[in-house]
Amino acid sequence: MPAARRTAVAALVLPLLVLAGCRGGDDNPTASGDLNGKVVVLAASSLTEPFTALGKAFEAEHQGTTVSFSFAASSELATQIEQGAPADVFASASPATMALVSDAGDTAAEPVTFVRNTLEIAVPAGNPGKVTGLDAFADEGLTIALCAPEVPCGAAADKVFTAAKITPKPDTLESDVKATLAKVTLGEVDAALVYKTDVLAAGDKVEGIDFPEAADAVNDYPIAALADAPNPDAAQAFVDLVMSAGGQKVLSEAGFQLP
Q1: 3-state class of 116 per DSSP?
Q2: CA 45-112-237 angle, 5° bins
C-alpha cells in the first residue's frame, strides 16, 4: 500500500479505535473476546479505503478476529456469491446487484442502505485535456475511460449521459471504478467518470469536476450479512459497525453521503 494511502487509512481508523477503547467490555454484547475467527467481506471497490479502516478497527476491538476483504465490481462479487464462494458480508454499490443475491435467498436479513455516492469527472492533475464538463465525453479528440455498463459505476454513467442527452465515445471500458480511476492517475486518459469518493481518495493525483446531471444517478449502497456466512456472529457485528455512529463517521469523512 502506498504511503499516502496508508496515511489516509490511518486517519480514518483513528476515531474508531478511540471509540472501541471507550466501550465497556462487559455490557457490550459483541465485546472483544466474544468473537473470533476470520470475517470475509466482499465489498464494492469504491469502499476500499473506508472499509480497510473499518476492518482495522474491528480487529482492534475484537482481538480474536481477522477481517479479510475482497474488493471488486459489485456484479462480479454477486456472481461469486451465487456460485457458492464462502463469505460473511456483502456490501454492494447498487441495489440492483444486491438484489441478485438477496432475491436468491443468500442474505441473512433484508439488506440495508448504509451510504450513498455520486459520480464526478476525474482528470489528471493540471487537466491537460482542458475538460470542463460532461460534453467532453463525446469529444473524439479526447481519450476517455468509463466503467463497463454492467457494473454499478457504469450503469450510473449511462443514467447521467441519458439525462444530459450525450452519447459518450469511450476509448476504454474498465472492470470497476478503481481500474477506471487508475487510467486517470497514470495519465493514460484525459478524463474518466468515477465516484466522488474515489476522486477524494486519489488526493493530488487527480482533479475532480462536478456536473449537475450527477444528481440523476445517486447510487445507494446496501449491506447484508450472508445466509451461509461461515462466521455469522462476526458477520453481523461487522454490519453493526458499519451502521454505527463511528462507522458512519468514517464513511462520511471518505466522502460518502449518509442515507
Answers
A1: strand
A2: 80
Q: How far apart are CA 241 and CA 57, in angstroms?
A: 9
Cα 138 from Cα 182, distance rounded (Å):
21
C-alpha cell at 167: 452519447
Length of the chain measured in residues: 259
Rounded Cα distance between 228 and 232, Å, is 8
Average pLDDT taken over every residue of the chain: 90
Is the CB of residue 235 less than 8 Å from the CB of residue 88?
yes
pLDDT tens, residue by residue, 84-120: 999 999 999 999 999 999 999 999 999 999 999 999 9
CA–CA gap between residue 134 and residue 255 (Å, rounded): 21
pLDDT of residue 11: 52
On whether the pTM is more than 0.70, the answer is: yes
Asked if 190 and 136 touch (Cβ cutoff 8 Å), the reply is yes
Sheet holding 191-195, edge to edge: 172-174, 144-147, 191-195, 119-124, 206-209
> Is residue 70 classed exposed, middle or buried when 0-12, 13-18 and 19+ CB atoms within 10 A define those classes?
middle
Q: Are 222 and 110 in contact (CB under 8 A)?
A: no
